[in-house]
Amino acid sequence: MDLREFNRIRVRIIDRNGDLFEGLSTYNSAEYNLTRFGRSEESLQILSFPFYAGDIRDVESLEGNDGIYGVFSAPFGNIEEMTVIGGIDTIAEVLFSDDAEHIVRLLACLERYFLPGTSHTLACREAVIDALTELMTVSGDERVRTEAASLLDMAGRGDD
Fold it and tell me: Is the same domain home to 55 and 103?
């Protein structure tokens, strides 16, 4: 499989464990990965997560798909969950990126950490609330602002 054909398009990657990852991919050469990540193998990268050729069972383009979640199969997935687990630096990297689709997907994932009575805990909750407050002022995307406002309301920090 030629990973270069998946550069800068939305993809679904299935890894050797059968786990599914969806998002906008970037092709990385073996040389780049050796310098950046210390592993000399080509990869596709979604957000800050590289998927090396030897770890990929299958990859397919999502371009042209259109469902209730756009090209994606769910409102959020493993990439967004990994982003939350990565902590505030990884979360902020996505929230303040130019990719509104990934931002909205991350906000959908974060919602379960802000729902009243949730059993999900977020170690960096206050930092995420601060980031959401800032996102409200800097984002030009109405969907992003709406979802961020909803999370702030759930956190008790929305505009009253």
Answer: no
